[in-house]
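Hello forum,

I keep getting stuck at the same step: I have a sequence, I want structure tokens, and every attempt I make locally crashes halfway through. Rather than fight my setup again tonight, could one of you with a working pipeline run this one for me? It's a single chain of 132 residues.
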Amino acid sequence: MSIHLRHFIRYQFPAIGWALLIFIGSSIPSKYFPPSSIFTFDKLIHAFLFFVLGVFVYRALTPYQGRHEINWRRLIISVVIVVGYGILDELHQGFVPGRTLDFYDGIADTIGGLLAAALIVYLAKYKKTIKI
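Reply #2:
Ran it on my machine without issues. Output:
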């Protein structure tokens, strides 16, 4: 296996795969969701999903090196990608039967992406290197 393929599988594939899982979950009509109280925490679920996406996107933008210091450009780009994907996800849900476009879900998505960025900054500041 080439170094490029290994790097793709380790760094880019998780972000693409996670984004795909979010898209698939958003494509399920509401009538197929089991009645459960877990959906009362849907803003936390959104924040968690987009927090993970934020970490994965930052990793996907990492060059071929193991440890690195904070890269503000990559961090900002990753937050923009996560926020943009959250907006597109909400627009997409507006076309799924029984689902709605929810402004507050978009806010939760954004908070998740910002929390991922905060974790990355924290690790860079206090751990001096990031190994995510």
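The chain has a mean pLDDT of 87. If your local run keeps crashing, start a new thread with the error log.
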